[in-house]
Design goal:
Blueprint lengths: L14 H7 L3 H12 L4 E3 L6 E7 L4 E4 L5 E2 L14 H12 L7 H8 L3 H13 L16 E8 L18 E8 L4 E6 L4 H11 L5 E5 L15 E5 L14 H18 L4 H15 L8 H11 L3
Parallel strand pairs: 5-8, 8-9
Antiparallel strand pairs: 1-2, 2-3, 3-4, 5-6, 6-7
Helix pairs in contact: 2-3, 3-5, 3-9, 4-5
């Protein structure tokens, strides 16, 4: 089955809709202006008061209707100072948002005619704005959070019973997911106790039930001062679910992440891995939002504008 067909109708944004809504650079610029400055009302940098601004046909800017001072809706966004067509930026975001696992820069190169270097740079900039806020996960009224670690890169198995552990060719990734809620995934230098417990304290709210496997560095969770309840499942004994004790949610995310990256991007360097994690967690955290993912991407442009 085509994965696109699994997307509810209210979350689809077809290519016909895209072409109708954003036929050219002017349409994209007008959308950006309206979202940042509704009705064209913005504070004029010269008048120091809110004024109506009108489009300047020969420029990617709008002028104060009193003094003529320019304002650009692209200022402070990922589009600022870019020589690439604004519509191509929008189309690149559309392509990224139209599948569960994203698309490669090579595909954008083929579909738009830009160089691979330009396509890769655009994707890097788009991913830079997909990082979610870092408010605490869980809490006493939540269904609890699951925490787990995995490793990415290379093929050699690790040591001490954890595939990848101790392998310098692999990058450690730590994930924390609210059951029926949000997720956070982060690269880590290691998965030692100090590192993992530090992440618990930083990212998990007090009085939360934390579900993990039997990995020894998690031992200290129940002794922390934030009132955590720690429940564990023994994967080493081939036990994966006991009542509500499991880590199936985070394991499912790992499967989606690794399958997507290997299937679409094939490999990712350590220095860029976090930006790919941000893209996948951004999608995951909006899996139940009843609007197109492309709309979520566009809204993030406004959210992250300086």
């Amino acid at each position: 089955m085509n994965k696109t067909n699994c997307i509810p109708a209210e979350r689809r944004f077809t290519i016909m809709q895209f072409n109708e809504r954003f036929p050219d650079d002017d349409a994209c610029l007008d959308w950006l202006m309206e979202k940042r400055y509704p009705g064209g009302i913005a504070t004029c940098s010269y008048c120091r008061v809110e004024r109506k601004h009108h489009r300047i046909a020969s420029k990617k800017a709008y002028a104060c209707d009193y003094c003529g001072t320019y304002i650009s809706p692209m200022a402070g966004t990922i589009f600022e100072k870019s020589s690439t067509s604004l519509r191509l930026w929008f189309y690149a975001m559309y392509l990224m948002a139209s599948t569960r696992c994203g698309v490669s820069a090579k595909q954008v190169q083929r579909e738009t005619g830009v160089t691979y270097k330009t396509a890769w740079r655009m994707f890097k900039q788009i991913r830079s704005m997909l990082k979610d806020d870092e408010t605490g996960l869980g809490g006493p009224d939540s269904h609890g959070v699951e925490m787990d670690e995995t490793y990415f890169g290379g093929v050699r198995r690790g040591v001490k019973g954890k595939p990848g552990a101790g392998d310098k060719k692999k990058t450690a990734i730590v994930g924390i997911v609210e059951r029926q809620g949000r997720i956070r995934a982060m690269t880590a230098h290691d998965t030692k106790s100090a590192t993992l417990l530090g992440m618990v304290k930083t990212h998990i709210l007090p009085d939360t039930t934390v579900f993990t496997d039997e990995y020894q560095p998690y031992d200290g969770i129940s002794h922390m001062k934030n009132g955590y309840t720690h429940k564990r499942i023994k994967h080493s004994e081939k036990i994966y679910v006991i009542g509500d004790i499991h880590t199936n949610s985070i394991e499912g995310f790992w499967s989606l992440l690794k399958g997507g990256i290997r299937g679409v991007y094939h490999s990712v360097g350590k220095s860029y891995l976090q930006s790919y994690l941000d893209e996948y967690t951004f999608r995951y955290n909006r899996r139940n939002v009843n609007k197109p993912m492309f709309t979520c991407f566009l809204e993030q442009v406004i959210e992250k504008a300086e």
